[in-house]
């Protein structure tokens, strides 16, 4: 038997880690942008300035989804929007099934 | 242990509303004061400027010249009159982002409302320049195309711009802040002078300047696109 909130916190950390996994694809996309930009500079060294500027715009655009994942992870970890509803479920007598499930889950020998 | 929540210095009650004086408000006022002081000093010294620049005049001319080149190479000729606003935006963001270098301070852009307010002004300028250069037909072409049924989708698409702009800046700065704070927590006492200095250089100086630049140039691109649409 352990505190029921421990279960929620553990899954919140796992969820934050999953939300950060989109960094993989974001990084691949940003790598593609930088590689193409370097190819263009190697082909046309005189157009270095505009290509660099546009490369930064493309990098920022590709970064957006990664930043969204990061913000979601921060929200899950520090703002904890799920704990309030969970506590309400635990104490509200209108949800007897949820309470039974929660009691069963917290009794698991982990 | 590091706390993500922004420190609150006090609560002021104005006409029944609780106005929270957060660290963000104080620091952004300090940044504004720094920029205003610089501007006033430059304005006073403007009379003594000569044909042969030296010292302070060199610095001011270099900054203005660099930003003029930036506007000319990245902005369309239609939106050159907005250069002052973008220069202000860039200067404010730059000083804000590197404010975390001061001991015990955190950059005000690591709190979401400030980037969102700046992004909302960018949103306003996008609509304003579109209407000014293309007439009221810009609103019709942007929001009611290809059919008035698509109005909600178009509104969502337009409002996603300030949100993504502000989240990009906020996420980068907050990520750097959290990472540096964690390293401060786990580094041994002897290494606390060496490792965080390098991280501060990367996350505060380099990424801060880069994100200020990206915020400015993305706003510039959006405004230019809205002005050029016909």
Rg calc of chain B: 21 Å
Secondary structure tally: strands of chain B: 2
Radius of gyration of chain A: 23 Å
Task: Provide the structure class of chain A.
Answer: mainly alpha
Shape of chain B: globular
**Average pLDDT metric of chain A:** 83
Strand content of chain A: under 5%
Q: What fraction of the residues of chain B are assigned to beta strands by DSSP?
A: 5-15%
Oligomer: heterodimer
Given helix and strand content, the structural type of chain B is mainly alpha
- By DSSP, the count of extended strands of chain A is 0
Pair with the biggest interface: A-B, 14 and 19 residues
Ranges of chain B where pLDDT stays below 50 over 5 or more residues in a row are none
Total helical segments of chain A: 5
What letter string, H or E per element, gives the SSE order of chain B? EEHHHHHHH
* Largest sheet: number of strands, sense, barrel closure of chain B: 2 strands, antiparallel
Taken from the alpha-carbon principal axes, the silhouette of chain A is rod-shaped
Major sheet of chain B: order of its strands?
Answer: 1-2
Binned, the helix content of chain A reads over 70%
């Amino acid at each position: 038997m352990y505190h029921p909130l421990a279960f929620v916190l553990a899954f919140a950390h796992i969820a934050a880690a999953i939300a950060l996994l989109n960094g993989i694809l974001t990084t691949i996309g940003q790598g593609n942008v930088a590689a193409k930009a370097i190819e263009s500079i190697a082909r046309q060294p005189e157009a270095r300035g505009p290509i660099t500027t546009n490369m930064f715009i493309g990098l920022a655009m590709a970064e957006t989804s990664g930043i969204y994942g990061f913000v979601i992870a921060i929200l899950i970890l520090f703002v904890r929007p799920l704990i309030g509803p969970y506590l309400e479920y635990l104490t509200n007598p209108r949800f007897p099934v949820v309470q039974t499930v929660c009691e069963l889950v917290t009794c698991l020998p982990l | 242990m590091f706390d993500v929540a922004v420190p609150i210095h006090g609560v002021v009650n104005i006409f029944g509303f609780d106005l929270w004086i957060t660290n963000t408000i104080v620091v952004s006022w300090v940044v504004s004061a720094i920029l205003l002081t610089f501007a006033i000093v430059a304005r006073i010294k403007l009379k003594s400027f000569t044909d042969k620049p030296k010292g302070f005049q060199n610095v001011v001319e270099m900054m203005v010249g660099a930003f003029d080149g930036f506007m000319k190479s990245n902005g369309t000729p239609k939106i050159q009159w907005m250069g002052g606003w973008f220069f202000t935006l860039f200067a404010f963001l730059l000083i804000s982002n590197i404010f975390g270098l001061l001991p015990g301070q955190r950059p005000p852009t690591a709190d979401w409302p400030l980037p969102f307010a700046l992004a909302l002004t960018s949103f306003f300028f996008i609509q304003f320049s579109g209407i000014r250069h293309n007439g009221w037909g810009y609103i019709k072409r942007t929001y009611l195309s290809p059919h008035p049924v698509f109005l909600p989708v178009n509104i969502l698409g337009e409002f996603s711009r300030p949100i993504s702009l502000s989240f990009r800046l906020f996420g980068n700065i907050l990520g750097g802040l959290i990472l540096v704070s964690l390293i401060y927590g786990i580094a041994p006492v002897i290494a606390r002078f060496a490792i965080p200095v390098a991280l501060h250089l990367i996350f505060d100086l380099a990424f801060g300047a880069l994100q200020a630049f990206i915020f400015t140039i993305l706003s510039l691109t959006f405004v230019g696109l809205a002005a050029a649409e016909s």
